[in-house]
Model the fold of this input.
Amino acid sequence: MLFTEDIEQGGLIHSKTAGRFEIVKELPKDASSFNQMFDYADAFGKVRIAYINSAHKISSKPNKETKHATAIGSEFGFNTAAYNGVNFHISAYLSQTIKALNPDKDEINEDFSDVNGDSFIYIGELSLDYNSESLQAKVGRIRVETPYANSDDIRMAANTFEGAWTNIEYTSNLKTQVFYAKRWAGYDSQDEDALESQNEFKDLVSEDSFGMVSASLTYQYAKNSEASVWFNYIDEMAAITYAEIVGIYFINEKGLHLDYGFQASYIQEQENSGVDGYVLGTMAILHYNGLFTGIAYNEAKSDAGKSVSDGFGGGPYYTSLDEATIAAISEATGENSDSKNKVSAYRIGLGYEFEKIGIDGLVAEAVYGKLSNDYGDITEKDVILTYEIADKWSLEAIYTDFKSSCNNNTFDRALVRVDYNF
Done:
């Protein structure tokens, strides 16, 4: 039978399950005049302390040097009250390395800094918003969660985009999202070769490209269960049609339930970009009394010299790991492939939610994944601990062990982040 109550699930294994594109509606305070909008403004923010050990960029040197970094960051902003449904939203992102705990600049891990190894601060979100029960819209610098453009908040600052977004709810079960973006900033956007830092907004594709347009139709056929179709046109890159069915099936009244998902992506190349092919995937996660175990599979195929893409962010694919994705191995070999570029990947995992024994918010997981093509394999092991300590405090710790026979690269990485929200 279908699950009929809301359910929340955390951790990496659940990162691709139902609800990841859900719209959280928080209507701001009402103001009776334009001036009163600012009188009733609400401030919000987050302080983040993070530590990382090991170089993020993979090195082929047999005795590579371990790098580490410690930083304190924040997100601070405010929402004005709404006048006739319209309000202003602004949020600044900051990352400041802690010199007393860090090595010299040429030996520091660069994940928390700009392309020059320096601290940064920038306006990540700045938008004019409209909110009602059936329509939400944003214009400006915005944060969105869609299959091929998303925040992917994995270091100090999330990905954000310059553009516009709207969500229209026709009924309680049927809705549409429309999204446009020209530029973006954030950890995934940086390019050391082009001297582009994560704190700088740059074109998604090129100066000549008008950017990305995305539209979706989603039908929720049960609680936590939905079917959706997304169409993404990325000028000078690809036209991507993505379809997904994802949900929760409740097996018995004792808490035994199954998360399931099916996905398909058809990618059509534009302007000889080299981005072309298709991806199929499926997943299942079985839960009982706090214990859960999951398996996911993806297969991607492209013509010779072509590859599939994650888009702008973490991507939608079920087998994505902390580091490795099916698109990354496809892109790495696509240019050099003189035959069909076929990639297969699977991910298995085991986890436990400690709420069942009285520790609310604590989840521990172990994940193993393997991605393969004609050039070799990538294997990755992840150990993840997430803990919602209290209403305002949370902790995330991830250990990653990565091995690639495609180019004989290996690395391991430890990342710890503690957030205080206010």
